[in-house]
Amino acid sequence: MKGGIVAVLAVFAIVLLTVQPGQAVTCGQVDAALVPCVSYLTGHGDSPSPACCAGVKAVKGMAQTTADKRASCACVKAAANRYADLKDSAAQSLPTKCGVQMDIPVSRTVDCDKIN
């Protein structure tokens, strides 16, 4: 029950942080959306949590324009570089495990200027 409440609160926070039309995506929004994924991405779980997947979906929803996709990509890349123990295989599989088709790779080495 406690885990369910935490997941609901995390999703609620993500909804509040979702970008409104005409506003630019910020790293604070992307980071807040993806923080529930840190455990999975650093190898401390076999699958991403529901709150993590809600965050992945929120990031996808934030990044509608090319500029927003590139900004989100830069934020994801910066966040990935903050975690030395980030597992590249977990990062690459995250969107698929959450059932989300992403235009933004979760990678430390992606060239965000090539995102369309």
Polypeptide structure, described:
The protein is mostly helical and 116 residues long. It is built from six helices and no strands. The protein has helices at residues 2-17, 27-34, 38-41, 50-62, 66-81, 88-97. Helix 1 (2-17) runs parallel beside helix 4 (50-62) and helix 2 packs antiparallel against helix 4 (50-62). The chain is globular and about 35 Å long. The protein starts with a helix and ends in a 19-residue tail after the last helix.
Question: What topology emerges from the helices and strands here?
Answer:
Blueprint (H helix, E strand, L loop, with lengths): L1 H16 L9 H8 L3 H4 L8 H13 L3 H16 L6 H10 L19
GO molecular function, one term: lipid binding
GO biological process, one term: lipid transport
InterPro entries: Bifun_inhib/LTP/seed_sf, Bifunc_inhib/LTP/seed_store, Plant_nsLTP
